């Protein structure tokens, strides 16, 4: 597994389980001013394609720093004339001040070393009375119901403090936006429930993370084995339960 907590296949598989959350995140853009809407950290481009369908009167621009992601994104949006893609980091953005009529970003803030800096840049390019929508994972909320809470806490520390650069960013979003003087800030919580170890591995890569936590000394190899066997036992007995929360934070400049 790379230092990234994702690749194109990961984004596409999680996109299926998060379909309802994604649809909720598009709602403000259905009535936002016509013009230029950015999907920042667009990944494989599925959200850009969907926004282009919802807003044929607007230009939808997907931005990502990964050329391989943008290659897949261009395939996802093939044939849509109101779509463009830009290879760029999240800071700086090559758009004039207040030239954008909407910004959406999903599961990107968690990967940033300086989230306030990027959110400030979004604020710069966003027009007055135009919406910002941020979808984020609260990695600290990841829970398994198998006991061994001390081991779980250590794995959570590895995940939120090392593997994901800013794994608790979801909990800080309303504060970030308030400090930038956004208005009408709202937050919604969406719990995701997984009922099998295979789902936890597909959508969270959890056993890979468990192994990494042991290899890097956050837990012992014995702890790793104990936790894994408990996961397998719960799965075998049809009482596996894993939950994680996502939030949608929306606001207007």
UniProtKB/TrEMBL annotation:
<keyword id="KW-0808">Transferase</keyword>
<feature type="domain" description="Methyltransferase">
    <location>
        <begin position="37"/>
        <end position="138"/>
    </location>
</feature>
<dbReference type="GO" id="GO:0008168">
    <property type="term" value="F:methyltransferase activity"/>
</dbReference>
<dbReference type="InterPro" id="IPR029063">
    <property type="entry name" value="SAM-dependent_MTases_sf"/>
</dbReference>
<keyword id="KW-0489">Methyltransferase</keyword>
<dbReference type="GO" id="GO:0032259">
    <property type="term" value="P:methylation"/>
</dbReference>
<dbReference type="Pfam" id="PF13847">
    <property type="entry name" value="Methyltransf_31"/>
</dbReference>
<dbReference type="InterPro" id="IPR025714">
    <property type="entry name" value="Methyltranfer_dom"/>
</dbReference>
<protein>
    <submittedName>
        <fullName>Methyltransferase domain-containing protein</fullName>
    </submittedName>
</protein>
């Amino acid at each position: 597994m790379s230092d990234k907590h994702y690749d194109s296949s990961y984004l596409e598989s999680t996109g299926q389980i998060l379909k309802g959350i994604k649809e909720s995140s598009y709602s403000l853009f259905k009535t936002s001013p016509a013009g230029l809407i950015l999907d920042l950290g667009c990944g494989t481009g599925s959200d850009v394609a969907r926004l282009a369908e919802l807003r044929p009167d607007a230009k939808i621009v997907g931005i990502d720093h990964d050329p391989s992601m943008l290659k897949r994104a261009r395939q996802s949006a093939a044939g849509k004339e109101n779509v463009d893609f830009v290879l760029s980091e999240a800071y700086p953005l090559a758009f004039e001040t207040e030239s954008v009529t909407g910004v959406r970003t999903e599961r990107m803030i968690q990967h940033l070393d300086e989230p306030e800096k990027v959110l400030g840049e979004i604020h710069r390019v966003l027009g007055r009375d135009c919406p910002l929508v941020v979808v984020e994972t609260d990695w600290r909320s990841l829970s398994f119901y198998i006991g061994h809470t001390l081991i779980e806490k250590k794995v959570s520390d590895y995940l939120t403090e090392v593997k994901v650069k800013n794994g608790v960013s979801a909990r800080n979003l309303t504060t970030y936006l308030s400090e930038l003087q956004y208005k009408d800030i709202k937050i919604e919580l969406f719990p995701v429930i997984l009922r099998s170890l295979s789902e936890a591995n597909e959508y969270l890569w959890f056993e890979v993370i468990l192994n990494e936590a042991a290899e890097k000394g956050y837990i012992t190899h014995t702890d790793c084995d104990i936790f894994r066997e408990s996961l397998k036992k719960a799965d075998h007995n049809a009482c596996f339960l894993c939950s994680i929360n996502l939030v949608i934070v929306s606001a207007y400049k």
